[in-house]
Design goal:
single chain; 152 residues; alpha+beta; 3 helices
Amino acid sequence: MAYRKIIQVGDPLLREISQPVEKVDDEIVTLLDDMKETVEKAEGAGLAAVQIGVLKRVFVINVEEGYFEFINPQIVKQAGSQKGKEGCLSVQHKVGIVERPNKVVVKALDRNGKAFKLTAYGFAAKAVCHEYDHLEGILYTDKALSIEASDQ
């Protein structure tokens, strides 16, 4: 595992649409391992591959319920609504109020290429939506109802 540099807002890569993973292989497993080390070291709730310069449809979340990896995720159901503060490892020193679903159902592949479905609620649902947006070239600041300075 290796820590990878997190790219910052202003880098045009963050606005690109990530490409599907064609095959879950050793390269993808190494990417997932590096993403885990990076998100843990950065003390983040999630990280998309594009944030470390890899335009692949891969993200991880690190939330109270556990650590989860998603390859080629699809959000298949959303319900409810929640508003709350969000930050981003690629948008330092700012937080914003963002409205997100309170529940999401996601289909994806795991690191073994096996399909799974996960239902996430509350903060975990927010983290899934935030990271999924990265795969579409969207930052939370695009959806924020308000943005303010932060020391994080």
